[in-house]
Amino acid sequence: MKCLTAIDKSIINNPFYVIDDKKLSIPVASGFLDLKTGFAEAIFTLPECMGKGYAGLILKQLQYEAKQRNFVQLFLDATPNAMLFYLKQGFTVLEEREYYSSLAQANLHCYRMYIDL
Q1: Tens of pLDDT, residues 23-79
Q2: How far is CA 32 from the centre of its chain?
Q3: Which of 21, 23, 67, 105 makes an SS bond possible with 28, Cβ 3.0 to 4.6 Å?
Q4: Coiled-coil stretches, from where to where (predicted)?
């Protein structure tokens, strides 16, 4: 029997979106809405596919999903290199912070951000 990881459980228990590129035949972007916290999570785009609007599509779908579930705001933690993207999408910075990433096994600098829905 296989044990579920935290990521597996997040995919099962929350609305999770993936964009496939038909030319590449692979997923190129993803993200999910954490229903317990109201946070957009795991918004990723393959580096070679950045700038094509995929992350924006994922983000718009997460905003729609959150609004349908009666959230009034959507939150996320953005890395410094992604902060400008989220500002352009209408998000506002709440605070700078650090969080511990078990994947990186280090404290990572980020910006807590939100948008009104």
Answers
A1: 888 999 999 999 999 999 989 999 999 999 999 999 999 999 999 999 999 999 999
A2: 6
A3: 21
A4: none
CA angle 97, 47, 21 (to 5 degrees): 125
Q: Which residues pair with 16 in a beta bridge?
A: 32
Q: Tokens at residue 37, please?
A: 């916290």
Measure the CA–CA gap between 21 and 19, rounded to whole angstroms: 7
Phi, psi of 87 (to 5 degrees): -60, -40
* Mean local confidence (pLDDT), 80-109: 89
Alpha-carbon separation of residue 65 from 50, 62, 74, 98 (angstroms): 23, 5, 10, 27
- Is the pLDDT score of 1 beyond 70? no
| Whole-number Å distance between alpha carbons of 80 and 77 | 10
**Owner of token pair 């997923």:** 27
Pairing state of beta strands 73-78 and 92-101?
unpaired
